[in-house]
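haha ok so turns out i had the wrong file open the whole time. this is the CORRECT one, sorry everyone. sequence first:
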Amino acid sequence: MRARPLVANSVAAIERQLHTVTAGGFAPNLAIVFASIAHEMADVARVFRDAGIDVFGASSSGEIVVGATSETIREGCIVALVLDLDRSAYGIRLVEQDGRASHDLGVAAGRWTRATFDRGPLVVLAAGLTMDGEEIVRGLQSEVGPDAPIFGGFAGDDWRLTRTYVFTGRKLSSEGILVLAFDGDRVTLDGIASSGWVAVGAEKTVTKAEGNIVHTIDGVPALDVYKDYLGLTSDTDLIIPEYPLQIQRDGYSVLRAALVALPETRSLVFAGTVPEGAKVRFSCSPGAAITDQALSEVRAFHRRVPDADALILFSCKARHWALGPLAEDEVGPMQRLWNVPMVGFYTYGEFGKNAGGVTDFHNETCVLVAMKEN
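then structure:
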């Protein structure tokens, strides 16, 4: 599988780049595309569709590309990874929400995957600010099994928190999930999810919650708990995804970031399930130390998976904020381990497998995915 990265500041420029890389005989069939909502997603998709290339795309909140220019992290851009992978080795499916719960969306996508490639590896993109990422994973796993490789992320919208999108060459959705499934006999996908956020403060109890909506913590409205913790006086000043709740699992922990405040009920909508009765602690970034942990875990992953044709990186927007200019120090060294093309984007939530091999939904996490044609 040959891969070429593209990056441009406009639809016209990405069209010119695509023409340039295909003029020499390179004939890609698949484009993995991430684009700022500064651009019309339908116009972005059209560029690849008109070239006869299948599209698997999402809106972003910052773009990542290595191998096209000297700049690794971009904003307001379009990035794409174009691949010459045979169409019989993959399939793309857009599953609209249509009033269904997040778990049911995952089930529908998993059922299609199982019918198409049994339990082949998946990349999943989700659009929608109130969907439950954990329930999407659980729905998928109910069909493809707990050991199926599942990677991906929630689409972004340059942190406007208004509307996010996933798209194919012909369809665009602001509430749905997009699945790229592979024939596991022909394409191998593996990856690693790493965070580095540390728990702080006393343990608290979620006293009232429904799925990914938390109403009270220790009997106090969740919004007020966050405001008190962050020392804020106004509901509109909240920037809360950087301070997720840490939930302890069986032998590992996950983070759950609050994305939407509901002032009328003093509740918070989290990116994934926060169970009623769960013991939680606030968490925060220790700064550049999160890069050290991520690179350590990625190096261990490289020793296990030393070969790849291309890389995809799904990294939380909160990591970008936490690291600032040092974000380059996290992304660049990861790519240099394999020295192959890499694209990615800053997300509102991530799907991936942790160092212990458990697939889950994450926040404040970077998920690196290695693709290899067998």
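The chain has a mean pLDDT of 92.
again sry for the mixup
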